[in-house]
Every structure is written in C-alpha cells, then in structure tokens.
UniProtKB/TrEMBL annotation, chain C:
Entry's family note: Belongs to the complex I 20 kDa subunit family.
Named cofactor requirement(s): [4Fe-4S] cluster
InterPro entries named in the record: Complex_I_20kDa-like, NADH_UbQ_OxRdtase-like_20kDa
Transmembrane segments: none
Cited SUPFAM superfamilies: HydA/Nqo6-like (SSF56770)
Gene transcribed to yield this protein: nuoB
Species of the source: Methanofollis aquaemaris
EC number(s) from the headed UniProt entry: 1.6.5.11
Keyword tags: 4Fe-4S, Iron, Iron-sulfur, Metal-binding, Oxidoreductase
Entry's Gene Ontology molecular function annotations: 4 iron, 4 sulfur cluster binding; metal ion binding; oxidoreductase activity
Transmembrane helix keyword on record: no
Residues covered by the NADH:ubiquinone oxidoreductase-like 20kDa subunit domain: 18-128
Name this polypeptide is given: NADH-quinone oxidoreductase subunit NuoB
Domain of life: Archaea
Record carries keyword Transferase: no
Amino acid sequence: MTSIITAIVFLILAPLLGGLIAGIDRKVTARMQGRVGPPVLQPFYDVAKLFEKEDVTVTPSQNLYILAYLVFMAVSGAYFFAGGDFLLVIFAFTLAHIFIVLGAYAAYSPYSYIGAERELITLMAYEPMVILTAVGLYMVTGSFYISDIATSTVPAILYLPGVFLGFLTILTIKLRKSPFDISTSHHAHQELVKGLTTEFAGPVLGKIEIAHWYETVVLLGMIYLFFGFNPVLAVVVIALAYLLEIFIDNTFSRMKWQWTMKSGWGVAAILGFLNLVIVYYYYVGV
Amino acid sequence: MPNNRIRDAIIALSGLVISLGSIYLFATSFTGGSVYFPFPFEPTAQVMFVIEMAIALLLLYLGIKFKQYLAVLLVLVQTAITLYFEMTMAGGLEPVKNLFIDEFSIIMALIIGIIGSLIAVYATSYMNTYHEHHPEVRDRRKMFFFVVFVFLAAMFGLVFSNNLLWVFFFWEITTLSSFLLIGYSETEEATNNAFLALKLNLLGGIAFAASFLYLASVDPAGGLFELDALIASGQSVAIIPAVLICFAGLTKAAQMPFSGWLVGAMVAPTPVSALLHSSTMVKAGVYIIVRFAPVLLGTLAGVAFGMVGAVTFLLASAIAISQTNAKKVLAYSTIANLGLIVACASVGTPELVWAAIMLIIFHAVAKSLLFLCVGTVEHRTGSRDIEDMDGLIVKFPKIAVMIAIGIAGMFLAPFGMLISKWAAIEGFIDAPFGIVFVTILAFGSAVTVFFWAKWMGKILAVTPFGENLEGTVSRGKWVVLSSLAALTVLAALLFPLVSSVLIEPYVLGVYGETARLAQDNIIIMLLMVLLLLFLPLSLYTSSKESRKLPVYMGGRSTTPDLKFAGSLGIQREMTTRNYYFEEYFGEKKLLRWGNPVCILLILVAAALVAWGMSQGVIL
Amino acid sequence: MAYLKKSPWLLHYDASSCNGCDIEVLACLTPLYDVERFGIINTGNPKHADVFVITGGINEINREVVKNTYEQIPDPKVVVAVGICACSGGVFRECYNMAGGVDQVIPVDVYVPGCAARPESIIDGIVKALGILEEKRTAMKETERQHGN
C-alpha cells in the first residue's frame, strides 16, 4: 500500500521537483559564469510555452515514440519509488531511452539521426556501470529491491566507494552534462543543431523535457541508495553531488564520443569491478 | 511445376502434423515428470551402427572428392574410435531406459516441432523464389527438403534419447544434415564453409565418442550410458564424460574458437540459417550442456566452460556492432546468446539453469522470426545489408514491424531475452566467480543494446520517399511470419506459465530446488507488455492532426527525396549511415583475442579435470 | 496564459551580414547583458524557436534559406530584423545581387536599425517582439476556436 502511495506521489511531485532542480541548475550555472541567470521557475515557463506552441512533426509516429518515452520514464520511475526491483527499473529505463532514440530515427533527419546514434553510444557507455551499481548494492544489502536497499542500515557507501565514484561519473553522462552531452549538445545549441531533439517541437518537446525531469529525480534517488542508513546525510550528498555535476558541466568543454565510451567503460571496469571484487571476497571469503 | 505444388502441400501438411504432434505431446505429458521407455536396445543399435558407417563412408567420399583431407582425417579418427568401441566394448552393453520424456525434452520438442516446421513451410515458397533468383544453382530441392525433415527428426531423437549412444547417433546426423544444407548451392564458398562446419563439429564428435571409451571402461555393463544414471552417478564418475560431451556441445553451439562455422553457414539459403540458429543444430549443443549442468555445478571445469561462454557473449556481441550484413549481425548475435546460455548452464546453479532454458526458448522464437524476415527482405530488395534498410517501415510496413518485434524480443524489456538476462545476472551473483561473470554480462548487454537499437532505428526511420512494395509476398510466408511474430509477443506474455508448468518442475526435479522470478516483478512486466501493445492506439485517438514539416536541412530547401543544392550548383543527396566502429569492434581484431582466450580456457578445463582425476579430487 | 513572453527562444540567422551585427547579437548573451535573464535562449534550430533574428540583407543565395527556415518555425513566431542591412539592405541595397531587406522574403515584425545595432537596441527590439508574439498567440487561439466551431 505504501508503495502505491509513494509511486503516485512520485508521479505527481517528480516533475515539479525535477523542474525546480533544472531551474536551480540554470541559476547556479549563471552565477558560476558571473551572470544573473533566468528565474528559478524558468524551466516551467519553457515547458508551459512549448505546450502553447503549434504541434508540428515530420512524421506522426514521432509523437507515438515520445509518448511512449514519457510514459515509460514515468512508469519506471514510479516503480523505482514504489520500491521495486532495481534491475527491472534499469531495464525499463533502457526501454524508455530506446523510444526517444527511435523517435529521433523515425524523423529521418541528418541531425537527429546522428543525435540518435550518439545517444546510443552514451547508452552503451553508462549501462555497465548502472548494472554494476545495482549489483554492488545487492551484495552489500542483500536485496535487489529498492525498498530494502533504501531502508537498509548498512552504510553502503563505506563498502562501495569505488562504485559510488563510478556512478557519479556516469551520472554526468546520464544528465547530459558537458563533457558528455554529445547527443543533444545542451549548451552549444548550434553543434549538431540539437542532435536527438532536433525534429521535435512544441508540445512533443515539452514531453521530452518532462521526461527529463522524471529521470533527474530518479537518478538523484539512486544516489540516496548509497546513504539509506542516514537520510539527512543522503540529502546533503545528493545536493553536493548535483552541485559537483553543475561544476563539471561548466568547467569542461564537450569531448568526442570516444571519451564518453572510455570514461563510462573505464569507471565500470576499474572502479566498479575492483570495488565489487573486494566486497565479494570480503563477504564470500573465498 | 505440379510436382512442386504437391511437394509444398505435403510439406505444409507434415509441418502441421509435426507441430500439432508436439503440442499434443505437451498437452498429454507435461504433468508426467520424467518418463522412461525401455525401448529394445540391440536391434536399434545395430541399425544405427550401419547408418553411422554409411555416413562415415559418404563423408570420406566427399572429403576425398573435394580434397578436404583434414576432414577425411577427422572422419577416420572418429570412425576408428567408434569401430574400436563397437568391436571391443559394445558387446556387453545393455542399457535399458533408452528413450525418455521430461519437461526439458518437451520444451525442446515444442521448439523443434513448431518453429522447425514453420521454417520448413516458409522454405517451400522461399526456395521457389531462390531458384528464380539463382538460376546457376542446381535445383536439388528434393534432397533439400528431405534433409530438412531428417534434421528435425534427428533433433527429436536427440532430445528424447536417454541412451548416450543414441544421442551421439542423432548428434552425428545433425552434423551431417547441416553439412549438406550449408553446401546446398555448391559454390566454392558454400562447399568450403560446409566443410568448415563439418570439421569443427567432427572435433566435437570425436570428443563425444571418446567419452564412450571412458564410460565403457568404468562400467562394462553399460548402465552409465543412460543419461539419467550418468548424471545421478555423481561428479567423480561423470565429470570426465561431462567435460568431453560439453566440449562437443561447445563446438556445436559455435562458441569461440569454433564460432567460424556458424558465420560461414550464412552462405546457405536463409531458411537453413533460420533452422540452424533457432530450433536445431546449435540448440542441440546447448541442450546437452544444460543436461550436464548438475555435473558441472561447483567444478572449476564448469567455471572455465562458463567463461568460454561469457567471453563469447561479450566479444560476439561486440563484433555484431561492426557488421553491416544483416545475416552476419544475426549470426554473431546467435553466437553471443548461445554464449550466455553456455555460461549459465556450465556454471549450473538452479537459477542459472532456469535462465538458460528461458534463453533457449526466447532465442529460438525471436531469432527464427528475424531470419525469415531478413530473408524476405533480401528476396524483395536484393540486399541483406542493413544500410539498405532505410525506411523499411515505408516500403514493407508489415515486415518492418515484425523485424522490430523480433529485435525487441532480443534485447528490450519486457520481452523475452531480457528476462533471461536479468535472471542470469541475479543467478551469477551467488555463483563462484560470479562477479567476473556479472561484469562481463553488464558490458555484453550494453553492447547488445547498441547494435540492435541502431538496426531497429534504421528500419523504423520514416523516409519521405519510397512506396509500399509489400504486395506480392506469398500467403504461406505471411502465415509463417505472423505466427512467429505472435509467438514472440505471446512468449513475453506467457513466460510465467511456461516457467511454472515446464521449467520449474524440471529444475526442481534435477536439483531439488527451483528458481523463479518474483511475482510482483512478473506483474510489472506483463503490465509493460500490455502498455506497449496499447500505446499504438494513441495514434488513432490524437484529436487533431499535427502540421507536417520537412526535416531541418540547415535551411536548405530539398526535393521530396531529400536532395539539396550543394555548393557550385551540384545537387547532393542526404544519406545516413550507422556507426560501425570497425577500428574498435572489427571482426578480425576481436577474434584475434577471443579465440586464444577461449582455447586457453578449454585447455584449462581439460587440465583441471585431468589433474583432479590424478589426485582423486573434483576441481 | 502568456508563457510565450517568459520563454522566447530565438534563432539567429546571418543572411549576408558583415558579422558586425552578429557579434552584437552574441554580445547580448554575455554576462554583461545576459539575456537569459528573460528566459531567452539562442537555439540553433528553427523547430525550437519562437523569435527569428536575422542580420544582413537578402541576396539571391540566401533568399530560399531564409524563407525555408522561417517556414520551419512553429506558430506563433515573430521576425526581428537586426541592423540596417536586414531592415532595408543598407549600403548594399543597390548591389546587383541584393533583393533588399528581410521583408522582401518574409514578414518582419520588428526592425532594429543600426550599423552595427547596439546590444541595448537588440534587446529592446526583442522585448518589443515579445508583445507581438503574445498578440499572435491570442489571434492563433481565436482562429483555432473558430475552426473548432
């Protein structure tokens, strides 16, 4: 019952929270650059405006893919907050991402096509580390269920520092921050036009934004899992982690896709794997 | 062509009978557990021996005719072993329980019966077109369909035999059938690839035959030739034959370093590929390894074999990224998935065996669908290159949707393969060396997502040009393709049922404990499938049509087929190409790593068992 | 409601400008002027844009491009011609290959003169354009309602 309530609360509040985080992100970014920056509520204005705009598409099937993207992003996020199986949440997220990629392919536009390919590269880059994160939390807490992991009294972070660092690295990829925003070019809008999202406009683009908000909240929720033993500390770390992401975003230029691949796979193979091996032998004692 | 029509009708009818038969078998005996049939051994064994010798002579003749002396040598070695065995040891053997049925056999029978016969039916119309397209190929359809059905029969024999000698007999027949089918077109390439398949499979056959020498020396009465008795006899007896036979399984399941034959088999007509990849041949290899999983459980040899599978899974998936030829992508994906199955089965915990059997089922359905769809596209467009599949959804909407379903079945939640991958990850964590396996799996599945998704994107791209060309695909093909597509979706919907009715009882019977997915996860997955099925309806409900705009081409005005005025007044065309990363994931590059690593692992497994035997311990 | 005014995304196109005005447009984004205060984002994509900012006059090569880009901006949209060349063709007006100002090809809503136009006047022009954008939205809603009836 509680799980259903948290799922519903997530469905309603996550877009608000996610939008707010995006607003703070822009404000902080502006301050880091010595600017005033837009109002904190700016992301909401943006999305509200997008829904006021005309609905134009290249092909109607695009709208279907984006609807599926939004729905599956929300559903998998709700399942995460309902305390469901971590691995299933990860796979459902992958499914959601495949939908936006398919939407970009469907338009058959040179820019969105390259954006879609690059999005798949980022997907391939971060996927191993995400799975290893779930595995690591399972090894420490003994459960794949988010509800168990989040309420576990084991200080997961102490056992999994490498996994946590690895997760922060791929968080940069997943949040589409520089130097890894190769698929949509978040800041320099002119490169690749707008990659993945080039051919989406108006309400459809608005849905993509909302889906991003859902995703941000879930990603930050994943950080929580490392600190489930102390909720206050968890919230502090989440805030710090996000600030760190903004800082990275503003200090790096965009790199080539090879760099994304090497970073994602590198942290998974070195930080993630080594950390897990140590935990494995510590626990299993082979 | 009245002959053809009669033949097609007979084939369709037989296909129907075979699939109904396997469904009937399922319906009548799925509750029965393991049932053994004391089929008379002696006369049958003699007939089999004669046939085996005849096959050996045939292969010798063909080997000499085509100057494939290595193959000749291998046939000679294998025949020598079997002859020696027959002359000196077989006399006293009296295995009783020669045939049997259990839940796993039923699963295999359903796969062979339904998917195998669907492919055979598809092949009738495919081969008609094939000979129109390839007038230079001698029309040997009589032989072709004969061998196809022999192939299916051998597979049935293989999964119902409890007598290892019989398993071996059917094993050799599948080797021969695939050899004949791969070489169908009689071109030099086809002949060479057929012989490659023959040679690699003979290597496995020799190992298989060698296990008999050991078994007969341990137990002259032949009781250990009964599969169930052998597996129940404990690791100290069974480990050597298990390793030998699983080695044969590795060759048949096209694991590295033996993967070459399955890739080479692409030269055969597409239904043959579909058959080899989905319901026969390679599935025989993994079938036998799954059977021996309890023996390998907890041994280092099992871990080494599992690692062969895991390395194959990772590298074959990576190679699939670099391939533009659709059939080659499918081939490498098959090799990869078989690797995963081998990894699960060789490590052999109950959870992993559950996952392995799930993988066998889902892979068979989705892969046969994909092969047959690609075959159809190839016949219509003359190309099997993924780069030529732009806008397939416009030109062949139904086939494109089916390919998309098949691809989704291969890698997306909530479809089949993903369920098994998930179960595999959960299963490996608690297994020995689990972390290594899990890490390899994590990388492998990321790679898998990449190569499937980019292909899926390619075919679903809605090109503003092109017209519907689907018209003249024959009705028989439609029936087969839509049944397979429906099966792929149904498998995702019904897998909990398959699991509880067949897989769980089997695993329970073997291990005394079983594995399953948690109930609430199953519910979520089913909800996801339903959601996926209903989402397309939103296309019809959207109240107002959105305004259509052409794609953004940097402001250039374009013609409807996306040609634009380039500099100096030259008209250019917009084309898109997928990423292939040849320099990172190239076939040669990765095989150069994969083959030695896997050879090493196999040698390690052999050394471990040999050393363990000499010390009297099981490693 | 009028969210359009609060979140104008603009597309900047250099028709045949000498780059003087372009530099001034970009200057608006710098910390000194920081137009993101008003929610303004410089997108590179007509499909995401609301305000079409053009510098430089129209010649025979870019005529099609300007028209095409304009058509790809979803409604409601406004066009701001920045700099005297975009307004009227400027000193190039009489050139053999010039068609004149932007309004020769597409309807222009706000003219920002200057050579080069100062950032202050560009910002001023865009803020003016936002009022027009809002009017257009109301008009669009109106026609939609009539169509609905």
